[in-house]
Design a protein that fits this description.
Blueprint: E1 6-11, H1 15-26, E2 31-37, H2 40-47, E3 55-59, H3 67-73, E4 79-84, H4 90-97, E5 102-105, H5 110-121, H6 129-139, H7 146-151, H8 157-167, H9 172-179, H10 183-197, H11 202-211
Parallel strand pairs: 1-2, 1-3, 3-4, 4-5
Helix pairs in contact: 2-3, 3-4, 8-10, 8-11, 9-10
Length: about 220
Amino acid sequence: MNDRPIKVMVVDDQDLVRDGIAMILDGQPDIEVVAQAVDGADAIRQAAAILDLAVVLMDVRMPVMDGIEATRQLAGGPRVLILTTFDLDEYVYDALRAGASGFLLKRSSRDELINAVRVIAAGDALLAPPVTRRLIDRFADTRLDPAVAERIDVLTAREREVLVLVAKGNSNAEVADELHLTEHTVKTHVSRMLAKLGLRDRVQAVILAYDAGLVTAGQR
């Protein structure tokens, strides 16, 4: 069992926001804030020198380098949790495309913040279903990519059904109810689907489903 604390970096150009988040997280026995950065470029520099950095809490709108470009450059490294003021911030979708594993509203509670870090560190995505629906309905790029559509062919019919429901913002429990399966079975299908498609998490699955035309903005 891994009992090492989750190493976290907080990136925000506002000192009070950054310090406040760091103080809350550092108070948890399983979380350690190992760095704070004032912009994306600063985050990239510091991340390169930190061993086993697990989660980066990333603001979007910052000087020098914004959170989207920083997220893109961190791809394949620590998981990125986007911090945003508004749940329909147009930049959030771009950040998800850049490789972020989810987003958290700055007005979230202390417990929500702590839980978000733990969820992301565990390898899961953090997108509340109702917010996912609104976000993608408003900002999804509806232009289809034939190359992406061909990737879907590796899925079984059931895995494709699961992908479509996940892309619509349904939780595993809701998918299980819709398809009359157990939640454990749905989790297995999601894991296999992600592996076959070479995706890291369900956030990437949602984006791929839209790009492939399996679902379209506004569809339920």
